[in-house]
Structure formats: C-alpha cells, structure tokens
C-alpha cells in the first residue's frame, strides 16, 4: 500500500506540509540573523551610552547638592557663634525688596483692574 497521492499530474508523498528550505533560504536566514544581531548590538550600545550620560549627570547633581549642603552647614555654624553670614543678609534684604516690589505691583494691578471695571 503506497500512501502517495496523485494531484494535478504530480505524485505527492505524505509528510510535512509547506515549503522546504533551500540553501538560498538558509543563506538569507543567516544574513537576516547577522543583521538582527548587528542592530541589537547597536541598540545596546546606544542604551549604555544613554545610561552612562544619565549617571554622570546625576553624579554632577549630587556633587552640587553636597556643596550646597556644606555651605548651609557653614552658615549654621556661623549663626551658632552669633555671626550672620553676609549671604544670609543679602538674601533677607533681597526678600524684603522683592516683597515691597510685589506689593507695589499688586497695588498697580489693582488700580488698573478698578479702572477697567469702572469703564464698563
């Protein structure tokens, strides 16, 4: 008993369906695999570059924050000794000036708003 079938004048043997890979297909498959590996390595390289840049920027931020913390510690030590650092004096006078400027600008805005409302 032969399990082969005649279809359209050709004899087909039972077995796996579909196309069987030829050597050309194997070469193409290997080339696609190599290309995919190259692209994967390129993506990995870019990802590592991005992460290294991120780490270095965070390290710079940490250094800046440490310097700021050290400055505040020195200010606190100076104030404990009864001295007011000049930077704090400048900040306080700057805040007072900005508050007076904000108050004057609020009065000016309020006057403009009243003038606009009365013209209606």
Give me some keywords for this one.
single chain, 120 residues, mainly alpha, two-stranded antiparallel sheet, 76% helix, cAMP-responsive element-binding protein-like 2, activator, bZIP_sf, DNA-binding transcription factor activity
What does this protein structure show overall?
There is one protein chain. This protein is mainly alpha-helical. It contains two helices and two strands; from the N terminus they run E-E-H-H. The chain has helices spanning 23-80, 86-118; strands at residues 5-7, 10-12. A two-stranded antiparallel ribbon has the order 1-2. The longest helix has 58 residues, at 23-80. The radius of gyration is 39 Å and the shape is elongated. The termini are far apart. The mean pLDDT is 82.
Please give the structural blueprint.
Blueprint: E1 5-7, E2 10-12, H1 23-80, H2 86-118
Antiparallel strand pairs: 1-2
Terminal CA distance reads 106 Å
Mean pLDDT: 82
What spatial form do the alpha-carbon principal axes imply? elongated
Uncertain spans: none
**Rg, nearest Å:** 39 Å
Question: Which structural class should the secondary elements be placed in?
Answer: mainly alpha
Major sheet size, sense and barrel closure: 2 strands, antiparallel
Query: Topology as H/E string?
Result: EEHH
State the total count of DSSP E strands. 2
Report strand %.
5-15%
Strand order of the largest sheet: 1-2
Task: Output the number of helix runs.
Answer: 2
Helix share, percent = over 70%
